[in-house]
TrEMBL record, chains A, B:
<feature type="binding site">
    <location>
        <position position="47"/>
    </location>
    <ligand>
        <name>substrate</name>
    </ligand>
</feature>
<dbReference type="Pfam" id="PF00696">
    <property type="entry name" value="AA_kinase"/>
</dbReference>
<dbReference type="InterPro" id="IPR054352">
    <property type="entry name" value="ACT_Aspartokinase"/>
</dbReference>
<feature type="binding site">
    <location>
        <position position="178"/>
    </location>
    <ligand>
        <name>ATP</name>
    </ligand>
</feature>
<comment type="similarity">
    <text>Belongs to the aspartokinase family.</text>
</comment>
<feature type="binding site">
    <location>
        <position position="183"/>
    </location>
    <ligand>
        <name>ATP</name>
    </ligand>
</feature>
<feature type="binding site">
    <location>
        <position position="74"/>
    </location>
    <ligand>
        <name>substrate</name>
    </ligand>
</feature>
<feature type="domain" description="ACT">
    <location>
        <begin position="343"/>
        <end position="401"/>
    </location>
</feature>
<keyword id="KW-0067">ATP-binding</keyword>
<feature type="binding site">
    <location>
        <begin position="7"/>
        <end position="10"/>
    </location>
    <ligand>
        <name>ATP</name>
    </ligand>
</feature>
<comment type="function">
    <text>Catalyzes the phosphorylation of the beta-carboxyl group of aspartic acid with ATP to yield 4-phospho-L-aspartate, which is involved in the branched biosynthetic pathway leading to the biosynthesis of amino acids threonine, isoleucine and methionine.</text>
</comment>
<comment type="pathway">
    <text>Amino-acid biosynthesis; L-lysine biosynthesis via DAP pathway; (S)-tetrahydrodipicolinate from L-aspartate: step 1/4.</text>
</comment>
<dbReference type="InterPro" id="IPR001048">
    <property type="entry name" value="Asp/Glu/Uridylate_kinase"/>
</dbReference>
<dbReference type="GO" id="GO:0005829">
    <property type="term" value="C:cytosol"/>
</dbReference>
<dbReference type="GO" id="GO:0009090">
    <property type="term" value="P:homoserine biosynthetic process"/>
</dbReference>
<dbReference type="InterPro" id="IPR005260">
    <property type="entry name" value="Asp_kin_monofn"/>
</dbReference>
<dbReference type="Pfam" id="PF22468">
    <property type="entry name" value="ACT_9"/>
</dbReference>
Length: 401, 401
């Protein structure tokens, strides 16, 4: 019998009623002729509540013990779901990460799966049971409980599907992947398909439907991933390798982020290592900078802009003050009202002119862009936040997103 | 260095503040020159709350999965206590039942410890760590999480002490073992010592300070058990083998129980197996009967009395109705206002006259007793509940409890 791995996230299992509903869906799916392995997250806000509790003891709690605590959330959901399945007459078994054979490295709170021994899962499936696996967790070689970090249950599900050589279904609280987030562009179209590469770019740009790491595993091991509403009533989106059956689009998606600010430092002396001085100070304070642009040097001086998370504003101000001690001539400015807009599409590999088309949209609509950076399948712009809605509508219309 | 196993119960760890206080006590104890292994229960009412949650899904939830859920309570406490110890600068490690090497049989929700592999505990102790073990749980041979039932953390602690060949300290919310529960007899004296045999009798009679099973393990493996308040500020009680240093007392303790009712069935026909018919029906319905008394047969008929838990009243009424179909002549009565008073003491083995002394107390004080049963080191009476306080005071005074 074909196997299917499913994953239900925290909002899908946040109450006993929802757990009972999902048990019904799983039984239906089993009856349609599949062996089922379902990965579950902790109920609702359980993980955050557990973290809050540990913060009352220590600002930096022991990570090994934090993993022991956090892993209980998924362990409880998996057991409750099995109780519900059995109450409905369906044999089932709950497995912790350890019992599911998931071994990880020792990096507590952000471990990586090293291997999955699927012997136990195969045995339980052969006995006709539905298997419910506690997501987000594993065990290290010395027997410590580990967790996989944010989005860990997605990773558990896709890794299990890779090992069982079967498709993976991620059930969540959105209907699938949209070209543009429907909360910011209500006319956005749901995609039937998206390639792994496009989804990785969109996910790393902030489309938080599925963890980037899970897509990377799916890509590496050729696992077809299906994302849909946990009610199972609407058609979702397949993430898979690009093939010709997929509609040929230049741009697949557009992502928007308001979480960055833009720093511009003008009049940086080129000769005395002024630039490297700036970036090494940013790196020392762990400030995660993203888009960097720089003008060509004029008279020994350059102008530099970069984006960074808004919550690092104070740290950056301090760094600028420090820089002014040795480089009195610099002039710095921090702009907070900026928005980063990125377009992603495999079509950009072969079709040029996307950047030009967007420049044209900006010009005809009086949208000033401050920075532009490009990679093989994406282009990102920073613009003034006041122009955000106009830019989204014009680009989405132009590329039929 | 000498090892000490400690156990802290649910009320001792019910808040983060209490966990922090206990961390201080453990560190003090370690500094006084001992290697410490501490067993903890789930915080406060956690276990009951988890059971409530499962009841919303199923009246009889899958026991394997119930164990997966219940075990998380102790797992969380152990990790929080380690976080607190580390925050105070003391190296420590939390171990689940599985990580502590505790293997049990497969009887979910009431498992028995089969063995403890103490290799990991020895290793961690040799590295100077305090070890916090999640009580109440273990792992079966096929890798399932199991729990040990009510009082399971006591059992974990005493079994660990047996295996590590060291004393066991049970910290709880009472100051130690009293001859009579101080809530019902305020003048009761705390005992400095009590023998395993006496404590097993008292515990099975309802003195719920420590699980009977834990004392039995202590008795079997000669583990000295010390019971005291979790603040560590008052002298508690040692449970150990009887030796001559222990004060010579005829009666060590008195226990009182109001949780039973008494059933009397008169005119039971002796010849047609009437008696066995009654007790087999009680056994079929899992009614736990305790004190049984029977008169000698007169004219082919006997009168029988027995005690049973008050919550089985309805079941017993039904059984009596059934019995009347085949034995029309019986007359039955259920008395709910009865109290069971038991006296326990090793001295009874050698000193006769305890029963006579108590009969005398009852006679001179107008206390009517309905039943009496005896074992080697205990005598139990059922009396009318209205006479309870008088009986307790008179017996406690007479035997200086």
């Amino acid at each position: 019998m074909s196997i299917i791995v499913q994953k239900y996230g925290g909002t899908s299992v946040e109450t006993i009623d929802k757990i009972n509903s999902i048990a019904n869906l799983i039984i239906e799916r089993k009856k349609s002729g599949f062996d089922i392995v379902t990965v579950v997250s902790a109920m609702g806000k359980t993980t955050n509540n557990l973290i809050e509790m540990t913060k009352k003891i220590s600002e930096n709690p022991s990570e090994r013990e934090l993993d022991m605590i956090l892993s209980t959330g998924e362990q409880i959901t998996s057991a409750l779901l099995v109780m519900s399945l059995k109450e409905k007459g369906q044999d089932a078994i709950a497995l912790t990460g350890f019992q599911a054979g998931i071994t990880t490295d020792e990096k507590h709170t952000k471990s990586t799966i090293l291997d999955i021994n699927i012997k136990n899962i195969r045995k339980q499936l052969s006995e006709g049971k539905i298997i419910i696996v506690a997501g987000f967790q594993g065990i290290s070689h010395n027997g410590d409980i580990t967790t996989l970090g944010r989005g860990g249950s997605d990773t558990t599900a896709v890794a299990l599907a890779a090992k069982l050589d079967c498709p993976c279904e991620i059930y969540t609280d959105v209907e699938g992947i949209y070209g543009v987030d429907p909360r910011i562009y209500p006319n956005a179209k749901k995609l039937d398909y998206i390639s792994y590469d496009e989804m990785i770019e969109m996910s790393s740009l902030g489309a938080n439907v599925i963890a980037t790491r899970a897509i990377e595993i799916g890509c590496k091991y050729h696992v077809p991933i299906y994302i849909a509403l946990s009610t199972g009533k609407h058609k979702g989106t397949y993430i898979k390798e690009y093939d010709k059956s997929m509609e040929s689009k230049v741009i697949t998606g557009l992502t928007v982020s308001d979480s960055d600010l833009m720093v511009t430092i003008n009049n940086v002396p080129y000769r005395i290592g002024g630039i490297s001085n700036i970036f090494s100070k940013l790196s020392e304070r762990d400030i995660n900078i993203d888009m960097i642009s720089q003008t060509a040097p004029i008279g020994g001086y350059v102008n530099i802009s970069f984006t960074a998370p808004k919550d690092s504003k104070k740290l950056i101000s301090n760094i600028i003050d420090e820089l002014k001690i040795t480089m009195k001539e610099i002039r710095a400015d921090i702009e907070e009202n900026i928005t980063k807009i990125s377009v992603v599409g495999l079509g950009m590999r072969t079709q040029s002119g996307v950047a030009a088309k967007i420049f044209e949209i900006f010009a005809t609509n009086n949208i000033e862009f401050k920075q532009v950076t490009t990679s093989e399948i994406r282009i990102s712009y920073t613009i003034d936040t006041k122009d955000k809605d106009k830019a989204i509508i014009k680009i989405a219309n132009e590329f039929k997103l």
